Amino acid sequence: LRFAMFIWLTVVGGLVLILRTRFPYWLDDCVYILRSLLLAARLIMYKRSKPFHAVLDAFLAAARRHPAKTFLHFEGERFSYGEVDRRSNRVARVLRQEAHLREGDTVALFLGNEPNLVWTWLGLAKLGCPVALLNFNIRAKSLLHCFSCCGAKVLVTSAELQDAVEEVLPALREQGVSVYFLSETRNIQGVNFLADKISKASDQPLSRDLRANVTYRSTALYIYTSGTTGLPKAAIITHERMWAASFLQSLCGVTRDDVFYINLPLYHSSGFLIGLAGCIERGITVVLKRKFSASQFWDDCREHNVTVIQYIGETMRYLCNTPKRDNEKEHKVCIAIGNGVRADIWSEFLRRFGDIKVKELYAATEGNIGFINYSSKVGAVGRINFLHRLIFPYMLIKFDIEKEEPVRNSQGLCVEAATGETGLLVGKVTRRSPFVGYAGNDQQTEQKRLRNVLKKGDLYFNTGDLLRFDEDNFVYFQDRVGDTFRWKGENVATSEVADVLTMAPCILEANVYGVKVEGNEGRVGMAAITLKEGEDFDSAGAYNQTVNYLPAYARPRFIRIQPSLEKTGTFKLKKTRLVEEGFNPALISDPLYYLNAAKRTFAPMTTEVYSAISSGMIKL
């Protein structure tokens, strides 16, 4: 019997060794597939339950299960699940009475990363009200545009954003939008201050009947994103999609004993859906920061025993650029979830800060396809497996970069890219993987739809991203196509930037694009412009124009003045050569300028300035 057992163990051990040698990621694949099946079963159960079981219900269950457990750490304060539940009840009661809210009414939240946003959203969810999460960096035209997208007639904001609100207050009144501040009364006419009323309101639970008609197909959130062109677009996030995004933490191995660190903005899908909603799904503790701070990052992690962090590529680069410390590996962080990190920064991050499992993601807020690098292979944004492709059909198709359109064969169908070849990622639109689109913007929704891909009449979501699949089934991000660039973790629509620039009196036309800068993630904004006849370049005026109308991440850092802008035969602006040439004055004879914030102008670009920017001496 012992000999038989020895033979059996030897055979099994040999098979495992062969599998690990020939298929080194088979165990990772098996774990991921098992987790995916269990989560899919849960989602089906939630969708079929009556009444529908939403993420809010997961929070309420956690508040009942462990009311004293810390839900939020914020700037030295601690808020338990039970306390956040009670605070959300108060907010819900006051907003229902003051704003006359009913189930289905959309409310815009214009708030920074603070606990107020969390319990205000929960309170509105208890009323069955969808919430539009506004980027607190936007101003003027962009801010007003966001209301027309989602149809919100109520704005909830804070004293910190008073100036931005007052700037558009007359226009908001014309649109019939009521403004509510979650702060003490101030001398501002035409707005409402709720702090006193909220403090006096009842914190008793609200009736489930207030949201009786909410289903998995109902809109839960509007999250704004810049896609191919134009002003921010309101991506519709249904309750089903919210659940799916919240499951990403579980897929990455986060458990109910973890502590999660959120320093990304909550108006983003990463911070809100993957971060906050994911923590609610797990029932865990959140350490919330107003904004990212490289100098405080690891001290925060040590103080609160953080085990899971979120990142974008810039986050890791900033951390790697901090001065080295003797204790920088003394922490409990074991998982990092995010997107956009370069392979070299990734490797340096692991070398500096220890054995942290980096779970790189690829996804779009409004998209129907995404990937997880659950094997933590450096440089990859995801991994292919048969189950994922079966449930969410997708493919890479050949793409003509010059024409900015898919390559089609003689039958008018798209051509699939070969393994190892860069191609445009498209996801098939099905009942399981829908593309809901953008609120109040049918034109932009249609532009993201790609028809006649594999056969006549089929429909796919066009991600607008070029990816590559290798022979080991790993996925690599290559580039973004279309009229966008990504900087500081934000997608920037080039047409919006061009519209702002051409408002400057001296500028006739503007061709905006993104260029790479040594040592920086993504691409920074640059504009090739032409001047109006008889006009000289007003560098200070152009600077004021960009600063007054564009958030910091969208401002073009470089300007190139050309006699004329090169266009295609169909009058599209050509960008490929401009992107390749970048902002190097040694390669460009046209006048070049860079945004000099210290002098509040666009200053002439010199070889010395170029070297300083490339070496990191001048920060962008």
Automatic annotation (TrEMBL):
GO annotations of cellular component type: endoplasmic reticulum membrane; plasma membrane
Protein name: long-chain-fatty-acid--CoA ligase
Gene Ontology terms for molecular function: long-chain fatty acid transmembrane transporter activity; long-chain fatty acid-CoA ligase activity; nucleotide binding
Catalytic activity: a long-chain fatty acid + ATP + CoA = a long-chain fatty acyl-CoA + AMP + diphosphate; a very long-chain fatty acid + ATP + CoA = a very long-chain fatty acyl-CoA + AMP + diphosphate; tetracosanoate + ATP + CoA = tetracosanoyl-CoA + AMP + diphosphate
Species assigned in the record: Hippocampus comes
PANTHER family referenced in this protein's UniProt entry, alphabetically: LONG-CHAIN FATTY ACID TRANSPORT PROTEIN, LONG-CHAIN FATTY ACID TRANSPORT PROTEIN 2
Domain AMP-binding enzyme C-terminal, first and last residues per copy: 496-572
Annotated InterPro entries: AMP-bd_C, AMP-bd_C_sf, AMP-binding_CS, AMP-dep_synth/lig_dom, ANL_N_sf
GO biological process terms on file: long-chain fatty acid import into cell
Domain of life of the native organism: Eukaryota
Residue ranges of domain AMP-dependent synthetase/ligase in the record: 61-383
tRNA processing among keywords: no
Main subcellular localisation: membrane
Family note: Belongs to the ATP-dependent AMP-binding enzyme family.
